[in-house]
Write a structure and sequence with these properties.
By secondary structure, the protein is of the alpha+beta class. Helix content is about 20%, strand content about 30%. The protein is built from 13 helices and 52 strands. The strands form eleven sheets. The protein has a nine-stranded parallel sheet. It has an eight-stranded antiparallel sheet with strand order 2-3-4-5-20-17-16-13. Strands 1-11-12-19-18-14 form a six-stranded antiparallel sheet, with no helix packed on it. A hairpin with a 5-residue loop joins strand 40 and strand 41. The structure holds alpha-D-glucopyranose. The site of alpha-D-glucopyranose has 9 residues, from loops. Alpha-D-glucopyranose binds next to loops.
Amino acid sequence: MKPIVILFAAAFLIGSDAAAQKTQTLGHMKKASFRNNTLQIDTDAGKAMITVYNPDVFRIRITREQFGNDFSYAVVGQPEPTEIKKEETSTQIKITTATTVLEINKKPLRFTFKTPDGKVINQDDPQLGTIWNGTEVFTCKTLFDDEKFIGLGEKTGNLDRRGSSYWHWNTDNPHHDNNSEPLYASIPFYIGLHSGLMYGIYFDNTHKSYFNFGASQARFSSFGADDGDMDYYFINGKSVEEIVKHYTFLTGRMEMPPLWALGNQQCRWSYYPDDEVLRIATTFREKKIPADVIYLDIHYMDAYKVFTWHPERFANPEATLSRLRDMGFHTTVIIDPGIKVEKGYETYEDGLAKDMFIKYPDGVPYQGQVWPGWCHFADYTKPAAREWWGAKFDELVRQGIDGFWNDMNEIATWGQATPNFVQFDWDGKGATYRKAKNIYGMLMAKSTFEGTKKLLNGRRPLILTRAGFAGMQRYTAIWTGDNQANDDHMLLGIRLVNSIGLSGVAFTGYDIGGFGGDATPALYARWISLGALSPFCRTHSAFNTKDSEPWAYGEDVEDISRNYLNLRYRLMPYLYSLFREASLTGMPVQRTLALDYTHDPRTFYYAYQNQYTLGKALLIAPCKSTEMLTKVFLPDGQWYGLYDDKTYEGGKEYIVESPLNRLPVFVKGGSIVPVHPVRQHTGEDPGNTLEVHLFKGKGQHSFTYYEDDGLTYNHLDGRYYERTFDYNGDTGELTIRAKTGQAPSKFKDFKIILHGFDSKVSTTPAEYPDDKIYTRTGILPDGFDYKVNNLYKSMLLKDEEIKIKL
Ligand code: GLC
């Protein structure tokens, strides 16, 4: 075997095309030198640079040329001081950290990552390794027999991506189906699972990129791109959580969203004129269906010109926005990147005069057609243009807008063929559309976020984008783009959100009810039940579709919608705490079972692959609108039915009833779920009492409850209130740790509501003596017709640690 390897690796392979299309391997190491935690290697064909970021994270850069300026829009994490051991023999260099061993084979140059006890986690394909094919670059990795692949952001297909290939090329793709490629956003990050081991690969290259997990071949897994360097981060971890944490150390984490952005949101293309918007908002209040946000789609503008209002449809925007505000509504407006080419239109004239647009190589600004007709497009890769764009929101903010929806930013143009040679500034370094397309949407969202944040003067904006790239979580929420009103799209949306969550973006949702086409009442009922238990909850539908408000599908569906939205509002303290966790650690709010039940093969079964947990406590088993019986997999642990507190043993599969008013939802034993009474919007006072529901279970459980003012950045100066609940199900000890943060709680007291405990549970200390019977509906709001009796303990919310024995 060996001589063949050497021959193959040392030679430049002559491809069948002209010289420029040569296929070329990395070749043998010629020399190597360390500078601190960076190893530089010269090979026959190029150079490699290995940097240890921390014990688990290694960066590998490979180029055929000189390493250029080290610049990334996605990565913000810097190498941390890390103790490493360096060893060298005639055949290899070895770098060892506390958790990871990297063995670098010299001839040919290949990388193998191992555990300290010698198990291979990930390794280059021994023959192919990293290769170039013309301008393309690929790295091929050994494909393990039992290897599964998860993540890769907004990708269709199954939870396990084994046997499939994907590419990243942000595309307006409204007619996609279960397997179409590509969609709107690119996150070149995936997680490999095999032999009880796992790792992440983040490929930091914005060109069109390719991922092959054993499609059309079974020899290797690979990632690569049309151009640019091979520049990837290998991430070691003992759990998927740990890998996501490292990945978001690299690409950043979200800021706390405004609390109102977690509320129910209502959109359509388009609500107008102003009276219609007010009528929709008023109907929510009259019908007592909670909602926080209403959207204005493209018809609010004058001839679709961004930063304008239609003179008749919205003659007095300030007055309309103020009436909405009085009803507790925040208003979000759509802002697309296309700037209408029209003499006298301020944004166009100003952008042209200041040289803010992307251009052809001859300096002529590029024009593409979109809603307004011919448009120019701001160059968000240019720092001055980002500033310029951000400042343009001045008037909208002054008028009362605090939500900003960036759409069509792939860039979508009629014809979908913006030429690859259109020029971008790339922060002064220059690039073409080939390199800039995938990052454009994220940089638009960054400009919008940074600009509006400044203008809002201490208040948090909501930014929503359609296109994005790795790291977008620092600036924006994302929705999965245009979907269709059918069951397949509903379930696909769930897998997309599960996958995007694994890829660092926690604040994610889909168009509830389906964007294109008309939902049946049953479909809407199921979709809103699911959406109410997802991170970003917004109904949206296209022009020319039937009305799609919760009351537009008949009384039964209206009741179901109200019930599930009420449940969402009741869960707001829980949900907000999950977002706090996302902001600190990058954890998704909506968690595929692959996060916590990684090694159970049933997690990946076709029947169960859509299941997820909201946080760790609530398990949701999505099912079609036509399925009245559903197969559910309850992983290890103890579980409770949401609607009846019925107990289920975990590690088993069940068939449960799933009528439209009962989406299958289960609560994990040991969970702590804080809730407050239903409110019509998050701006309403939540009352004096926080209810903390504790579900009896075995083992150790912990939940951190978090509150802040929900609006400003004062929490960054310590103005927040946080308590960790530790529950030991084996000893029956519940410890409510002393508060952290300098703000008082909104609540004066709290009730601990016990699920699954005997009626004679005794508690110490004696100052919390009397068990009372709680005859409300557990976590459920009124409206669900089930009542369950639970014990509860009522107590004043003291700041110091409280210990209770149950
Ligand atoms: C795009 C968006 C959709 C929006 C429409 C009109 O299709 O994805 O959400 O309603 O444009 O602005």
